[in-house]
Every structure is written in C-alpha cells, then in structure tokens.
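PROTEIN DESIGN WORKSHEET
SECTION A - STRUCTURE
LENGTH: 203
TOKENS:
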C-alpha cells in the first residue's frame, strides 16, 4: 500500500509540474483497492491544480459507489463527509447518477488553499472489489478571478461482480428449441395413441 501511494505522490508531482497551464478543478489522480476485514477499502488521491483555489464550502462527489459500508469513510482534517443517492451536482455538469446507488461527497471546511498541491487520501469501504467507470464532480474557485469553477471527470468505483448471463445466440437457440420439443411430444403421443388403437382392434 505504501508503495502504491509513493507512486501516486510522484505522479501527482509530475502532473502538477506539467499541467500548470491547464484549467480544471479537483482531480482524482489515482485510486487503490485494499482488502479490509472481508470488505474492500477504496482510496482516492485528490489534487488541487495550480490555477484553482479551494475555499470553505467547496466540495467533490463520487457517484454510484456500490456496496458502501455506512460510516466507513475517512478523510484529511477540515473535510466533512455526507452520502445521498442523488446529487449534489454542480451547475453546468451532467454526470450519470443512478438513484439506486449512493454518492459520496466530501465538503471542505477549512481556510482557503491555493492550487498546486495534493489534498491527501480519501476513502470509503465497499462490499465489492470489482471496478467500473463512473464520474467525479467538484466545485472550487479560480485563482485568476475568484469565480466558481465546476468540473467533471471520469473516475472508478466498485460494482457487484457480474452474474453469468446467457448470450443472445444461446437464448435464440433455446427459443427455437421449445417449439421443436413440443412437436416431438405431440408426435410421440400420437404414435402411442395409434399403437393403443391397434392393440384394441386386435382384441
């Protein structure tokens, strides 16, 4: 685990150094899945780009985190956690949001932070280790003019393991086979009936 986050820290430093001219809000630069007491801890490393400022009340949301274990979240100081099945969604972005799955939101409660730094690791525990694509949105502020900046970016979340589902070709063959089975039974009954009639006639 330490090695994973050492690599993540180096990646964050390289990203911050090379992406200083790009405008974007909070970004999840990496994630890790760690077994924990029969469950799985999902950890996200979040960075604040150089042209973005984090203010009290700014937040980010990870959508459709399946299998969330209540009160399993952890975060750095000056962050408050909440969960809901829908939202919150910053204005101007349109993430896919399944109302049957919980969203995880971390809201900043500390003093303003200027960009170009990592914000630390945020995590929550899920029943599942299988990964799927989802969305991450954030509300922050631009350092250039202080205006609100809303962004959306892909991320990865847990999902239940897929159960085996018959392929369409298999289902089609099964559908064709049912009438044939019925026809075979009808023919067999007719033969049995004719045989019984022959026996009676012989008598």
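SECTION B - SEQUENCE
RESIDUE ASSIGNMENT:
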């Amino acid at each position: 685990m330490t090695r994973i986050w050492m690599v993540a820290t180096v990646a964050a430093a390289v990203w911050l150094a090379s992406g200083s001219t790009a405008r974007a809000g909070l970004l999840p630069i990496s994630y890790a899945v760690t077994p924990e007491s029969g469950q799985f801890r999902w950890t996200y490393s979040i960075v604040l780009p150089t042209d973005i400022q984090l203010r009290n009340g700014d937040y980010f949301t990870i959508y459709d985190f399946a299998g969330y274990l209540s009160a399993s979240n952890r975060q750095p100081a000056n962050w408050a956690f909440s969960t809901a099945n829908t939202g919150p969604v910053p204005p101007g972005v349109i993430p896919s949001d399944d109302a049957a799955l919980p969203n995880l939101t971390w809201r900043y409660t500390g003093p303003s932070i200027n960009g170009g730094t990592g914000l630390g690791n945020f995590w929550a525990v899920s029943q599942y280790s299988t990964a799927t694509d989802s969305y991450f949105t954030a509300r922050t502020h631009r350092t250039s003019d202080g205006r609100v900046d809303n962004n959306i970016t892909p991320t990865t979340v847990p999902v239940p393991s897929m159960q085996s589902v018959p392929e369409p070709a298999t289902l089609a063959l099964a559908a064709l086979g049912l009438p044939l089975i019925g026809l075979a039974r009808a023919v067999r009954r007719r033969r049995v009936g004719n045989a019984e009639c022959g026996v009676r006639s012989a008598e």
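SECTION C - NOTES
Helices lie at 2-18, 168-202.
The radius of gyration is 28 Å.
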